[in-house]
Amino acid sequence: MTRDLIEVVNIKPKTAEQSKVSIGNLMHLEQANMNGNVHGGEIMKFMDNAAGIVAGRHARANVVTARVESLEFHCPIHIGNLVTCLGQLSFVGNSSMEVFIKVLVEDLTKEESPKIASTALFTMVAVDKNGQPLSVPPLEITNEEERKLFEEGKKRYLAYKQKRSKGKELT
Fold first, then answer.
1. Which of 26, 115, 138, 153 is most buried, with most CB under 10 Å away?
2. pLDDT in tens, 93-129
């Protein structure tokens, strides 16, 4: 059984700062193709893990990936590069959370700033032990940038819900 309605009503809001994550990883030979470029799937898995940590911290529950949007690869990542995955909540619904993920790549042999290698939006859903959605704390907005991210995320959320309900009508 999911959380009681009384408990759901009393969930205290949390800030995006409380669940932010930054994870670094050095890229190895087994993660790359014959040209020395790291496989996109390796980066996607890294991004998914970071999104799961962000959502799990916010919900304090098990989370699953429901959707990935706007996944873009901006530059190649090579063996020996340091890859840093930054994750932050951008929108929170009842049980779903949108997490913005940015991947930075840094060549440790050069005096250069890290570059943005990839970006994506992951929708994560909190679930109970039976796989049923759980309510999550609301997102407390603390600054104008967070407000902008939240409003953009809300538009995507509502557009997806509308698209999904139209799809159900067709079946």
1. 153
2. 999 999 999 999 999 999 999 999 999 999 999 999 9
Pair of tokens at residue 125: 């859903």
Cα–Cα distance between 3 and 161 in angstroms, integer? 23
Residue 150 φ then ψ, to 5°? -65, -45
Residue pair 19/126 in contact by the 8 Å Cβ criterion? no
Question: For residue 70, which of 35, 38, 100 has the smallest C-alpha distance?
Answer: 100
158 contact partners, CB below 8 Å, separation of at least 6: none
Tell which residue, 103, 116, 120, has the closest CA to residue 25: 103
The structure tokens listed for 159 are 């557009």
Q: 11 pLDDT band (50/70/90 cuts)?
A: confident
Residues 30-59 pLDDT 10s: 999 999 999 999 999 999 999 999 999 999
Q: What's the rounded Cα separation, in Å, for the pair 36 and 150?
A: 38
